[in-house]
Amino acid sequence: MPERRSIQEMLRFPRTLEFTKEGARFVILLFVIGFAAINTGNNLLYLIVAMMLSLIVISGLMSESTLRSITVKRTLPRNAYKNSPVTITYSVTNDKKRLNSYSFTVEEVLPAGKAFAPAYVLKLPARNTFDVFSRCEFSKRGVFTLRAVKLKTRFPFGFFLKGRRMDMQGEIIVYPSIIPLERTGLFSGEHAPGDSAAEKGEGTELYGIRDYAAFEDSRRIHWKASAKAGRLLQKEFERERQKKAVVILENYDDDDENFEKAVDTAASLAVRFLKLGFKVGLKTLTQELPCSSGQAHLERLLYRLAVIGPEKTKGRASARIRGL
Amino acid sequence: MKFSSYMTVITWVIVTIGFSALCLVEEIGNAFLAVAGALTLASLAINSKTKFRISKTLLNAAAILVLAFFALDYLYMSESIVGAASKLLSIIVILKIRDLNAGKDYALLYALVFFELLAAAASTVSPLFFLALALFASSAIWAMAILTVKKDFEEKAAAPGRLPDSVFGKGFFAATLIVSTLSVAITLALFLVIPRMSAGFFQSKSLNTIKVSGFSDIVDLGSMGPIKLDDTIVMRIRVTGRMPDGYAPRLRGGVFDYYDGARWKKTKPEKRDVERRGVMWLEGDEPPGGSSVLMQRITLEPLETDTIFAMPRWTKLSGAFGKILTDDAGTIYLPSIPYSRVEYTVWSSVTPFKEEPDGDMPRYLALPQGMERVSKLAAEITRNSKDDSEKAKDVEAYLKKNYSYSLDPGLTPGVPPIEDFLFNSKSGYCEHYATAMAMLLRAKGVPARLVTGFMPGEWNAFGGYFMVRQRDAHAWVEVHVKGAGWVTFDPTPDAGITAPGRSSDLSLWLDSLRMKWTRYVINYTFADQISIGMGMEKKARDLQKTLKDAFAYLRTKGAAAKEKPVALILFVSAIILVLALAARIGKTRPKSRKTPEFYNEMLRALKKRGFRKTPPETPLEFAERTGLDEALELTLIFNSIRYGGSRLTDETRAETLRLLAALKGRVKGGRQSKG
Q1: Which of A22, A48, A123 is nearest residue B167 as measured by Cβ atoms?
Q2: Max CA pair span of chain B
Q3: CA B93 to CA A309: how far, in whole Å?
Q4: C or N terminus of chain B, fewer CB within 10 Å?
Q5: In this structure, how many other beta carbons lie within 10 angstroms of the beta carbon of residue B130?
Q6: CA-based nearest distance A234→chain B, Å
Q7: pLDDT tens for residues A75-102?
Q8: DSSP H or E stretch at residue B348
Q9: Rounded to the nearest 5 degrees, what angle is found at the Cα of B12, between the Cα atoms of B8 and B16?
Q10: Which residue from A minimizes the CA distance to B644?
């Protein structure tokens, strides 16, 4: 998908540069020696100043050589749950023909105050690709937008931290936390909503055994039981019944803790019942998602819960499940 | 190579460079260097085998001792801040070598070595300094890169452990060498362009001066003898201009008019300022047209005199001085003794052209008492001479022929030295010859004076200059000849003028290197920068003109140009070709990540409905904006494929088809309902 670059992006300087503590000391020393050279007119001090300046130039060239022609392919985790660590994989390729790249990190460009652990590359030989990983954890549910990664290096002298931004859009949907439902009292594990006495029918589950009558389907004869009883017995099956449940989230405007707890509970119920083979739907104060099953539906449902916010009406936020 | 091995090698190299730099500090004596060198080597050798950390108490005690030593050294021994600080640094380096454990210990040691280089820079003018600096830069690049990688690895790697040995292979070493060479080249380029200015809040560095004799207001006869054996170079001189055949250039220093029988004096030592015009100091009239003028570019070592030297009859002088002084005999003086090398250019007329007024002559005719025998000899020598010039020539020839040159004339104590020389020993060196000639001429009423200075010394073919040494110090006579002015005569036999022996080619080459170093590094000034700038501007103009001619030639197919600039056209074409090839080779195709077709189809469908995705919008933001469930679900699938590394399975493909169909249906419906 071709994406046009905004003017802001086009005007942005392609590299960022920050002084490290060592770099700041080096530059101060450079100024002091420069001052001494001016005062004394001593050309050997000028020579030292020139050497120090050349180290800054060399530092720029070598760090550029490290960051240049590096491509990054980011693979985001398929699912991320609130407060659970996930791993972002970066496939880092050095497209240079001969020059190796040394000691750099791949970091997400995030809003102030947020940071993921950087992925570190010690040495990336020319024409090679390495996978490196960054572990991160989200404390809030929602859609977490990633807009760019930054390659950063202090190589070669540790004087400057040079960065190269690579715009790279990505989104992680952070689902609500999945909590053990037993603690909530909403689900015992033995009785699920909608459970009732089984009925005879054309399903696949065994209902019972009875005598075989003539002209009935011989494929239903239970040979083992017939041998034991000394007469022909046939299997009877349960009626195939659609198990359905709706997660009800009353997303009233409550305090954050209660609200988040309700959303986490709703997500946990949805996950549990889908795993139990139910078709699960979602009903909130303003939205309704019809009952369905499968991975895609689970993701759809969790997405809804990831982005849901409180309604304007004040009340106690809660979640429960209702069988159909 | 292992990290520890790398660090050991680099540390040895860097510490050795630091110690070499310390050897260049003039204020440090050989005894201290020998002890410090031995201790440094011992510390390095022990540290490379066993590593131990010095206890804090021991370190603190050592620090107090070292500081006390520094104070004592500065106050009573070196009496020089550079000398004392250099010694202090060398001791700290020795102590630090015994305490190398973490990366920051190594970094601190290298910083100390850098300060040793700084100390050397403040003290020396030796070209070896550049060698030490270049080697230090190369080693420091190597060391700092390794230390930075190690630090990063320890701080940022997911599982740090031990740094893999394979990181710093031969390739890394080769790359460091290339970068180091580049660093030296950049250093030199920057050195040339950094603007030179001297605010002068502090005194510039002072060098040890060379003791010379013969250039003060009073000169004892015989004082030049000992320095005639000294090989120390005192100046280097590059001469431009045509020298007539038989012309013997001499660098004039002191001029003396009064001889009391044992010493020469200046009766008019008063100095006056020389007129300055722009960057030039002008003395007297210009020589008449057609006179040969010699331009001398002189680099003078720091001598213990304020006199600076030039060939006789100087008329112009240029140099970075605030003031120039002269006396009535034309000697040039600086306002004070320069404790550093000085460089200046001076122009002198080869032929005498200025007569002295008669009223000034009596002081050049004065004789000390008891010169009767000398007068008698003078009359005998000049009995056939017609004029003053002939008298001077005859006396010069007589002395050259009848007296022998010796640095140990064995003069009799108690006998006036000139009488002893002329009538008893009949051997002596330049001062005896020159004094004898002056006295003989004065006895015959010819004005004469003694001049001290230097002969040009040894020619250095590698550098195209004369190397003037202490042993080239000389004394000769100036005779005032009517119609010509002061004319130079030298009665010393050739044996006393010609330099004994010749330097080896290697030493001449090294000296030319030193000369270049002094000229282009030590004495590099703002004026040189202007000169280089102007030269480059001229070259750029020439290039511009050549290019214009070349393009005119190409445009008019040769009609507009007189000559075919084939070489230039070929050169420019070759550069363009190389650049084009380099650009092509270096270009890497950006790897595109294909957007799944179902998502493009969705975007097209939504576009029809009036929803257009803006660049800063993320896919989910856009899907939310549409308010369409199908768009949202398609985007969730898209995201999992695009960013989550999922593949499009048959199941998801069927799902996307279903969702697309539903979306398109809604789009149509929407449009119909809109219509």
Answers
A1: A123
A2: 143
A3: 66
A4: C
A5: 18
A6: 38
A7: 988 789 999 999 999 999 999 988 899 9
A8: strand B342-349
A9: 170
A10: A76
* SS3 call for B253: strand
Residue A284 near residue A249, CB atoms below 8 Å:
yes
Average pLDDT over residues A168-174: 88
Mean pLDDT value across residues B155-170: 78
**Nearest chain B CA: its distance from A50 CA (Å):** 5
Q: What is the residue extent of each domain of chain B?
A: 3-158+165-193, 230-507, 550-591, 597-674
Residue type for position A90:
Y
pTM listed for this prediction: 0.73
What CATH superfamily classification does A7-175 receive?
A: Immunoglobulins (2.60.40.10)
Neighbours of B173 (CB within 10 A): 12
Q: Which among A48, A87, A108 is the top mutation candidate for probing chain B, defined by the most B β-carbons within 10 Å of its own β-carbon?
A: A48
Q: What is the DSSP string of A216-284?
A: S-GGGB-HHHHHHHTS-EEEEEEPP---EEEEEEE--B--HHHHHHHHHHHHHHHHHHHHTT-EEEEE-
Pairing of strands A119-124, A101-108: antiparallel
- The DSSP secondary structure of B77-130, one letter per residue, reads IS--HHHHHHHHHHHHHHHHHTT--SHHHHHHHHHHHHHHHHHHHHH---THHH
The two most distant CA atoms of chain A are separated, in Å, by 121
pLDDT at site A2: 44
Complex confidence, ipTM: 0.78
How far apart CA A34 and CA A48 sit, in angstroms, is 9
At B61, list the tokens. Answer: 């005690």
CA A225 to chain CA centroid, Å, is 53
Q: Cβ distance B286 to B329 under 8 Å?
A: no
Residue B450's beta-bridge partner residues?
B256, B477
Write out pLDDT tens, residues B449-502. Answer: 999 999 988 889 888 899 998 888 899 999 998 877 888 999 998 876 666 667
Residues of A in contact with B167 (CB under 8 A): 102, 122-123
Q: How many residues does this entry show for chain B?
A: 675
3-state secondary structure of B556: coil
